[in-house]
Structures are given as C-alpha cells and as structure tokens.
C-alpha cells in the first residue's frame, strides 16, 4: 500500500475492459484515477480538473495486456460505501476555473499603466480646489497644520519618487507627477464622485476599479509614503473620503450606474464570464446572464448602482456547496470537508504560525496577534495554520462560511489604507520590474493582513476536530467597506453568506488551531510566490478546499 497522493487526474468509471486488478477489492464503489494527474478529454471535448485533497488512499496495480496502455500502471483508487459515493464523487469532480488570462493584479504592462494614470490625473485636475468635498477639505485642513508636519511629510513622499526620467511620470517614463499635496488633494476631489468605467488600459494596468491607487502608487512606495499612509490621522481622513466615495457608488439617486454600459461590452463581458467559469461540468459554455443575477434587456443590466453590480450575486445552483451538511450533527461525515470561502486564487498557506512576528520585514511572516487585533482567543491559534487567497476586481466578492457551526464573535478593525511593505518600495532594483510594486500593495498581501482595514469572524465549527476557526476579510487598495452579514450566536451552515467586500480588489485568510491537520486540494497547494501569485487557478466559492483530520 502507498499513501499521500501527490497528483490527481479526472475520475473515470472503470479501467479498460481487459485490465486486471491486483489485489481484488470486494464491496463498495470503485473508481480509478489517472496516475499522471492529467485528465483526458471527455465526450463534450473539454478538460476537467479534480478537486481532490491529499488523502490517505490505497494504490492498485492495473495490468493492461496490449495497446497504448500496455504494461503495469499504478492507479490510486477510492473505495467508498454506496451511501457516500455519490456525494464524494460530486466533490472530487468539481472543476476549478481554468483561466488562461493573466490577472491584472500583477500587471507589467507599463504602457497601459501610463495611459490610464495620465487620463485619471487629467480628469481629476479639472475640478477647482475651491469646490472640495467636506471629507477632502478635512484632509487638506489636516495637511495645512504645520505643527503636525503631515503636509511636509506628504510633500516629501511626492518628492522622494526618484527624479529620473523613469519616474517623471509613471513606470514607462510618461506619467505626470503630482507636484505637491495641494495638487494631490485636488486629484482626490476629482475622483471622489466618479464611478469606475471599464477601460482596457485600466485593466491591463492592474488598476481597474481603483482610481485612488493610481494617484498613490509611487508615493506610497517611498520612505515618507510608508510613514504617511500609516499615520492614524491620515487614515481617519482617508476612511471618510473612501466612505463618501462608497456611499456615492451605492446611492441609487446618483449617477454611478451611468458607467455600467461600458462593463457590458464584448471585452469585459468575456473576461468576467471566463473568470466565473469558462466551461460548465456538462461541457457547455455559459454567458454572463447565465451565471449572475441580472437583466441583459435593461441598459444597466438591472443594476441600480455601480456597487450593486460589483457585489452581484450568482444565480441559484451556479455555486452549489460541495459535500453539503444536512444539519449541525458533529458526527456527520461531511463535516470534515471545508469549502472555499471566496471566489479566489491561493496566495499562501503556512503552518506553525507564531503569535508575534516582524510582519513588516522581508518575508512578511504572519503575526497572529496583529492579524486578530490582539483578540483574547489568539493563543488558541498559535502554532496553527493560515491560508490566504486573493480576489480579482472582476470576480464575485461575497464571502461564504467554509464550515457549519456557530458564529462566536465578529469585529471590524479600522486599519490602514494604501500601506505597503518597504521591501517592494524604492529604491528600485535594476532589472526587477516588481520593485517598486507597479500595482501596490499587491505584493504586500501578507503584510496587510496585520495592518489593513479588515473584518474578522470567529466560527466554532460543528466538527470538533476543526473547532474554533477564524475568517478574516482584508481590504486592499481603496476597499471602503467590509460588510459583515452575520452576528454573534448565529448558526451558519457550510456555504451560507457571511458578508461582502465593496470596491476594488481584496484578500482573505482562514486561520486554524494547531490541533487540526488540513489536506488541501491541488489548486491550493504550492508553489507560492509573492510576485507570481496569479499563476494559480481560481478556486470557485463553495467548492471543496480542504479535508480536516486530527493533527
């Protein structure tokens, strides 16, 4: 017998008719898995990707007497009772979303970055400073207080962007600089009541839906920018500015929906559809309206605001819960299967995480005390596991419970906005296009779990092996709101909605105690990379993510 399967292929009903099985298996249902981890084309002509965890599975030797499969082949098999087979088969056959397009959050198309940022600056600079919104005026008043030194710090961060042709404008050498903090405030004011339209250059630049980030990207990568964007008073002003921007995007009496037709043109529709699912399990290709709740006969596709479009819902049964739980019985076999909390791509998974770590240093170690806002339960998680994944701006942004259980506590942590790791800031490294980060703080995702604005939800899983776990929703860039939809004491079933992000891109973490061992599905496994984190597959929300067993 051999164990710990490293690669999995598509499950098939039976081996070749002339193959013999050694040793024979009696009873239960028997299914074979291709030993090379590559799934063949099925009758519909598309590839499937299985979602198997690394379970302790037996190995059989299949003898094929002739043909292309002649010889002895090693297959991993699952022997299940007839009662459990159907539900487990549905889990193992779940297809991950195979998207060939690079996600914009790691873009190196500097020409596109230049064109879009230049356009943002031009539009923002039109509105005179005398017409500042109250929230923006408060920031200007703060910067004007010389005794605080924040205006000087703001000017320093703008001036610390290297005075070379490369950074006179943008990474391509063309993006016009922000001259001083008065100019910066004017640009913020111009963006405040403008909804993000679909623009090809914005997508290619990795900045779709995040215009504020276009203003701050190079300044936040400076030494003074690191200090400026961590200042509590500055972050209070930024919070109010982003709240005003978010309120505008959510207000049906305002004009934010007027940009929505740009999102329903050929390019964005194709992109959003492919990211949601290029193929269905039966091999047919779906449309945007097949996947999301919308009305394509309406000019705005049934969305009264830009925010309603951003937090759009899947149609019923588009994301069924893999191996669903029927009740809160702790002994229910399905309780060992955890599902994905967000439509996301794995970023990192680390075990033996420490209570306190220097998260601001190179390597970005997870620091549980900081991540959990020094919650009294932090000691329960010391030595445990942190799983982190990120969400693209074009994807589904609601959170769902990975387990069935009881909500023990929820909390909102008002952290920083636009703070990034010094490692990915200036000075530039010749030949390294990721330093400084062209779409910050994308390369600082572990760092921002400790400092960013975030929502924390503690859930006591019905399965005692899992026990208390934690979901953390972390806002990136200009996320102005993380809305929690559950409350303390509420019972949740696996797959129930927990809340949602608003605006921009985002990341999330699952935190587990050291007493539980998690066998992750293939798409959640290494290799991990801070600079190539878009190489993994989008894992659908509610699909099988891990299998829990005692450590």
TrEMBL record:
GO terms for cellular component: mitochondrion. Keywords: Decarboxylase, Lyase. Pfam families: PS_Dcarbxylase, PSDC. GO terms for molecular function: phosphatidylserine decarboxylase activity. One of its GO terms (biological process) is phosphatidylethanolamine biosynthetic process. Residues 135-269 form the L-tryptophan decarboxylase PsiD-like domain. This is L-tryptophan decarboxylase PsiD-like domain-containing protein. It comes from Aspergillus felis.
